[in-house]
Write a structure and sequence with these properties.
- By secondary structure, the chain is α/β, with parallel strands linked by helices.
- Helix content is 27%, strand content 24%.
- The structure holds hypoxanthine.
- The site of hypoxanthine has 12 residues, from strand 5, strand 10 and strand 11.
- Residues 84-86, 159, 164-165, 181-183, 206-207, 209 line the site of hypoxanthine (HPA).
Length: 245
């Protein structure tokens, strides 16, 4: 079963033929909301809205452990995470879709591991390549097949939020090698890896990052909404494509 985590701008999947909704209990507390199960085409899908269906949970308070655990315990075998980001690299402006290949984690204070220091041995999961190669390839191939341009590869800087960054912070992140910036990439990807759940992200660039292009003196939210809506229509076409036999 394909798991889809919807971010800002994707709180539901209109093309999902819903069979049922379920509040999945986990040892880590409540997920962001009930999981929605159903079919798109001939593929079974489980969907969860990362920020809750009413978009009420800020990035630093999302229960990433519960969300990932709920998907895994429900039989999900591949996860596509949809997330909106700011663009740092010059070719990654508003409206661009990108499948990142690397992560830098600037978050702090989040529950970021399933290892709770109990009786079991300490495990250091390999995270050299944070995204699953097959899920990335599937996203890129399907996007090409349905004719939606998607950029292959970007370094995703995950910030703590919920505030946006300063221009100097973005300069520093760019110096570190970051191409896009968002608030939810971690610990989500790391937790999926701990459960050996193949996971990749499809990111929508909603705005230029702080201090870049038309965000030189501030990020204007009025334009952000329209960009997201249009881009999410393209994301939906790609998701439909993932589910074609
Ligand atoms: N910064 C961090 N997260 C984001 C941004 C941004 O500019 N845009 C969308 N999510």
């Amino acid at each position: 079963m394909l798991g889809i985590i919807g971010g800002s701008g994707l709180t539901q999947l209109a093309n999902l033929d819903v069979s049922h909704r379920e509040v999945v209990r986990t040892p880590y507390g409540e997920p962001s909301g009930p999981l929605t199960f159903g079919r798109i085409g001939c593929r079974e899908v489980a969907f969860i809205a990362r920020h809750g269906y009413g978009h009420t949970i800020p990035p630093h308070l999302v229960n990433y452990r519960a969300n990932i655990h709920a998907l895994e315990s429900s039989g999900v075998t591949q996860v596509v995470s949809v997330a909106s980001v700011g663009g740092i690299r010059a070719d990654l402006g508003p409206g661009v879709l990108v499948v990142p290949h690397q992560i830098i984690d600037y978050t702090w204070g989040r529950e970021m591991t399933f290892q709770s220091g109990g009786d079991g041995p300490v495990v250091h999961v390999d995270f050299t390549e944070p995204y699953d190669a097959d899920v990335r390839r599937m996203l890129l191939d399907v996007a090409a097949r349905v004719g939606e341009p998607v950029t292959d590869g970007a370094v995703y800087a995950t910030t703590q939020g919920p505030r946006l960054e300063t221009a100097a912070e973005i300069n520093r992140m760019q110096g570190d090698g970051a191409d896009i910036v968002g608030m939810t990439g971690m610990p989500e990807a790391g937790l999926a890896r701990e459960l050996e759940l193949p996971y990749a992200a499809l990111c929508v660039v909603a705005n230029w990052a702080a201090g870049r292009a038309d965000s030189l003196h501030g990020i204007r939210f009025e334009s952000l909404e329209a960009v997201l809506q249009e881009a999410m229509a393209r994301v939906r076409r790609i998701i439909e494509g993932l589910c074609e036999a």
